[in-house]
Amino acid sequence: MNEIVVILHRPQDPRNIGAVVRAMLNTGFRHLRLVEPAPFDHTAIAAVAHRPEPVLDQLTIYPDLASALADIRHLVGLSDRPHPGLPWRNDVRQWAAETRQRAASAGPVGLLFGAEGNGLSRAELNCCHEIVSLPVNPAYPTLNLAQAVLLTLYELQQVTPPSVPPPPPAEPPATQAELDQLAAMFDQLITATAFVKSGEGRSLRQRLRAIITRAALSRRDAAIVTALLREAVRRITREQ
């Protein structure tokens, strides 16, 4: 369970954070990250989650999403909104089995949950490798934050972990921080070549970020492409 990380982006209500902590204690998960949370104190959490120390002792708070995702190898966005170009799944039990296997073999898997009321934005989903939607009653599909976390973690808990850890992949996958560096080099190349003729090219940059994520690059591959783009930008800039 140590390789599964719950990430709450901009949670607003301390009671919801407490309910998420309780859900994690119920299912045996310990790693919680909060990104830009509303102010809270541990007393409010303890009022909802009795004896929350196993989770709170490892709780980390981040000022932005990029830093919270820096070491994550595979990021899952929990959302009922399909996103162009990203796998969208609601076969949660099959997904849970694959995710436990992935976490055991390739390193940290992040489960990203959006803010209460709004969920995950398009830009936040661009950072994800896949989107998972919980199969609830389509006539009333709305879940609150803690319910979504509990149902997701319950499915992961029910999967029997492999008795023998699977062999590591031939090359470890790139981290989110390394993918961010690659995306930043594409941004610099777009600027250096004046590829975008009007506007800021926001949709193009978002689509490139989704392509980078979907490519599932290894650390070595990401480093090679980043270095190649850096050299291209350097030469273009020098010749201008």
From TrEMBL:
GO terms for cellular component: cytosol. Residues 4-154 form the tRNA/rRNA methyltransferase SpoU type domain. GO terms for molecular function: RNA binding; RNA methyltransferase activity. The keyword Cell inner membrane does not apply. Pfam families: SpoU_methylase. The keyword Magnesium does not apply. Keywords: Methyltransferase, S-adenosyl-L-methionine, Transferase. Signal peptide: none annotated. Transmembrane segments: none annotated. GO terms for biological process: tRNA nucleoside ribose methylation. Belongs to the class IV-like SAM-binding methyltransferase superfamily. RNA methyltransferase TrmH family. PANTHER family: TRNA (CYTIDINE_URIDINE-2'-O-)-METHYLTRANSFERASE TRMJ (PTHR42786:SF2), TRNA/RRNA METHYLTRANSFERASE (PTHR42786). This is rRNA methyltransferase.
